[in-house]
Amino acid sequence: MDLDLLGVLVAGFAAGVAGGLVGVRGGVLFVPALVLFLELGQLEAEATSLVAIVMVSGVGALRQRSYGNLRPRDALVIGVLSPAGVAAGVVVANLVPERSLELGFAGLQVYFAYGLVRRGLSPPPPEDGPAARTSADA
Amino acid sequence: MSPRTLRLAVIATVAGAFSGLFGVGGGTVVVPLLILWLAYGEHEATGTSLAAIAVIAALAAAAHALYGNVDLAKGVLIGIPAIAGVVAGTALQQRIPGSAVSLGFAALLLVSAGFLVF
């Protein structure tokens, strides 16, 4: 098998698994794979990765719906309203030094991680998904 | 607007803003906020995040396509193995307790924060 094709298959599959496990879009894997293995420029790779992201997140959402893990109205509200945030982010990115933004986002991620670790180490709430309910019932 | 919808709007704005700032996917912001702020279960948060990402990415892809930046064939080429991956990932996730999803996501966030700082 062509090595570039193999790289595309591996990167695509890995991005999909990540999306299925933790609900992220996988662009961090799609973009470099499109640049390295399919010879796209950075801008084209970022734009083209969105096609794969629509595919993987759409199928992933449908799978999660079949497991009872989807609130479609909430997802639609977030999806439709987020472009306003994108525009605000672009404006802020041009006003605030890049290093300050990086450190601020890193701090926010650490704060989120702290909250999730606390939650992960505490007893599961009753409204958790089917896997937790199953394990709790076992 | 109900308080809950207002919170969803804030989550959408914050997720979009960080996407505009850093080009990161909304999931790294949407999933923790749904869990920590709206008391979602971990599995519901990841499922709902995926659906929101589909909407966001479709809008962004359409905008990029207008500028001729999208190579549809190559996007589909890498998207096909990704579909197999997400089907496997979601199936695997159902066998994992929510607490493990939280801890795994926390590890992902810390690694991402480390890359930003260093």
Give a verbal description of the structure.
The complex is a heterodimer of chains A (138) and B (118). By secondary structure, chain A is mainly alpha-helical. Chain A is built from six helices and no strands. Chain A folds into two domains: 1-72, no CATH class; 80-124. Chain A has helices at 3-22, 27-38, 42-66, 72-93, 98-120, 130-137. Chain A is globular and about 45 Å long. The termini of chain A are far apart. Chain B has 118 residues and is mainly α. Chain B has one domain (3-117). Chain B has helices spanning 3-22, 27-38, 42-66, 72-93, 98-117. The longest helix of chain B has 25 residues, at 42-66. The mean pLDDT of chain B is 90. Classes of the chains: A mainly alpha (138), B mainly alpha (118). The interface between A and B is large, with 98 and 101 residues.
Comma- or semicolon-separated keywords:
heterodimer; A: 138 residues; mainly alpha; 2 domains; 6 helices; 80% helix; 0% strand; globular; B: 118 residues; 5 helices; 84% helix
Short description:
The complex is a heterodimer of chains A (138) and B (118). With 138 residues, chain A is mostly helical.
Unreliable runs of chain A, pLDDT <50, ≥5 residues? 129-138
What number is the mean pLDDT of chain B? 90
Radius of gyration of chain B: 16 Å
Helix and strand succession of chain B?
HHHHH
List strands and helices in order, with pairings.
The complex is a heterodimer of chains A (138) and B (118).
Chain A: H1 3-22, H2 27-38, H3 42-66, H4 72-93, H5 98-120, H6 130-137
Helix pairs in contact in A: 1-2, 1-3, 2-3
Chain B: H1 3-22, H2 27-38, H3 42-66, H4 72-93, H5 98-117
Helix pairs in contact in B: 1-2, 2-3
